[in-house]
Specification:
57% helix; 18 helices; 434 Repressor (Amino-terminal Domain); five-stranded mixed sheet; 3 domains
Amino acid sequence: MGSSIKIHANPELLVWAREESGLTPEELAVKLHIPVDRFRQWENTGKNIPLGILKQVANFYKRQLAVFCLPTPPPKIKKPGDFRNLAKDQSGLSGEALLIVRRTSKYLKLAFELEGEEYWKTKYNWLNEADNLLTKKKNITDAEITGWLRNALGISLDQQKKFRSYEAAFKAWRNAVEKKLGIFVFQFPMPEGEMDGFSYAFEPPYAIVLNNTNNLPQRKIFTLFHELGHILKHQSGICFTDLYRENQLEMEYQCNDFAGKFLVPDNNVYPVDSVEELTKLSQTYKVSREVYLRRSFENELISKREFFNHLKTIREIAKTPKAKKEGFAVSPSVTSKSQRGEAFYNLVVDAAYNNRIDFSTATDVLNLKINSILNA
């Protein structure tokens, strides 16, 4: 039996893989139903680890078993800065979220290898234009910056108003960011309340990653542009985009301000006399009621008292349970494309068909069986 076979592993790799997973020795010991001292001994010596246990450890870390026998640990994955401003005892990321960070890094490395350095250098020429504008304007929230970005994305305010739904608006904005700016937009389920998303912009290509666990499309639209604000500032960061979070970092406030002003420019902000009117205006611009309410308050079109009264009402409405929609089966390929975005999905499928990568790599990064890719 596997449990009777003892394995010698590289102790440095054991520690490296655990730290990259975000788990502590105590948490691993609980999962493995063993004393923590025994697990610490394995990490110190790497000797006499039951094969069955090591397989479980590899599964918890989402790693291949062979990784524990490498001569030296690979470089640690670059992690975005944490802009959430949490209490010290709430800091850090869950194993699920760290896995998404690792996945993002892996996808971007593959995209870089497939297209090459010169392609991505050319694709990001727009960022040089943005840098030149920011050198003069100093602030991403300036109307000239948001206007320049709207032109770069090719979606006018009139077109924005004509989106038939929030879902259609999110899809259009996402596709524009991917096609016009070369920024991949991924969306994966992550623990609810841990983050709204993060920007990953260490070197081209860049990515914006959204948490799609119970997040409405209007919230994802706002988060998309919040994270784009960070990329304009050359920042990689993990974020909450709650407009009214206490003790919000200045950089988070500025990216929220940028997203709000981009989606609802100053000359399109009107006073709101009722929640019904607020709902109508927010639906027109395909933003949340909180976003439009904040824009009205920022422009001094409503009083502080009106602002907080409306805010209390719409947050109570948001808490009201909604009828669940009838579920229906979604094909694995649709799920894969929804999570990874059309740009990355199509890049990988085309590379597999043109023998630039093997189908094993394609099935791994797209989380699909080979038949799903062959029928794509």
